[in-house]
């Protein structure tokens, strides 16, 4: 066990407030302090790299673990990259159409949507929000001149989700994010596999890792790590695996937990 710690943060609902769309000043200062003390700090997100551009402007970290472990960048170094094979990607696009599934195909270049609007308010709001972040690709799902790393899908009453999932379940982990929204990640990749790659790279042990999260796609890293911080607002499925349940993002939960765990000594919250 090293005195140097590696901290892994989910983004939405953990570092980034889903209410204000900002990182609290307390979290920024806590992370700055931890890095100044020699600890390593990483974003560990389901978001692909392009979707992390907004967070890069809000907080400084040592690396980005993107797309549930499918792409890892440490500083300026690309440690790992895995794309869905091109022909498999084409088959997924065809299956989406056949089974009447709306999709968001996510890759290094951004997010790909169907050309026509879906009629599903939640999905169209996501398209708009992702567009504001500059991460909607000019290429549509119907195009074949790009590759992607992972994907999400949205179902409604017309969707044959059972038929679609049957076609992909051998190769993908299908994560139920609630409200007919599903995240599909290539098997063998997760936030946990990304953590282990980073620990191996720096010669650190699992005892040196601290993870912070709030939602079901954080489950792999919560079942894997020994030090697990659950945000005050969270999915109940994570509770059995939490070492510490902290405050919400807006209540300075990140800084509060880092002080409680002895990672930092300064207090940046009221």
Structure description:
This protein is α/β, with parallel strands linked by helices. Helices cover 28% and strands 22% of the residues. It contains eight helices and 13 strands. The chain has helices at residues 25-36, 53-56, 86-98, 121-132, 161-168, 191-202, 219-224, 253-260, and strands at residues 6-9, 40-44, 63-66, 71-74, 77-81, 102-107, 110-112, 150-154, 172-178, 181-186, 209-213, 227-230, 244-245. Strands 5-4-3-2-1-11-12-13 form an eight-stranded mixed beta sheet. A five-stranded antiparallel beta sheet has the order 7-6-8-10-9, covered by helices on one side. Helix 1 (25-36) packs parallel to helix 8 (253-260). The longest helix has 13 residues, at 86-98. 44% of the residues are buried.
């Amino acid at each position: 066990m090293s005195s140097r710690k590696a901290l892994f943060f989910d983004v939405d609902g953990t570092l980034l407030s889903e209410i204000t769309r900002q990182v609290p000043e307390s979290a920024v200062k806590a992370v700055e302090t931890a890095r100044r003390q020699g600890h390593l700090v990483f974003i560990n997100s389901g978001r692909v790299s392009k979707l992390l551009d907004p967070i890069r402007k809000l907080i400084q970290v040592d690396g980005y673990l993107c797309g549930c472990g499918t792409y890892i960048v440490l500083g300026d170094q690309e440690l790992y990259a895995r794309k869905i094979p091109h022909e498999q990607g084409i088959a997924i696009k065809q299956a989406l159409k056949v089974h009447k599934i709306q999709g968001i195909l996510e890759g290094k270049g951004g997010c790909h949507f169907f050309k026509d609007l879906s009629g599903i308010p939640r999905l169209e709001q996501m398209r708009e929000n992702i567009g504001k972040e500059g991460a909607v690709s000019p290429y549509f799902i119907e195009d074949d001149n790009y590759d992607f790393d992972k994907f999400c899908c949205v179902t409604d009453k017309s969707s044959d989700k059972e038929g679609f999932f049957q076609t992909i379940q051998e190769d993908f982990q299908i994560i139920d994010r609630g409200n007919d929204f599903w995240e599909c990640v290539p098997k063998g990749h997760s936030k946990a596999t990304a953590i282990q790659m980073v620990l191996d790279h720096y010669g650190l042990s699992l005892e040196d890792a601290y993870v912070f999260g709030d939602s079901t796609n954080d489950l792999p890293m919560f079942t894997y790590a020994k030090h697990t911080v659950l945000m005050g607002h969270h999915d109940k499925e994570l509770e059995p695996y939490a070492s510490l349940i902290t405050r919400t993002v807006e209540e300075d939960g990140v800084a509060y937990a880092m002080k409680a765990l002895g990672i930092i000594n300064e207090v940046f919250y009221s």
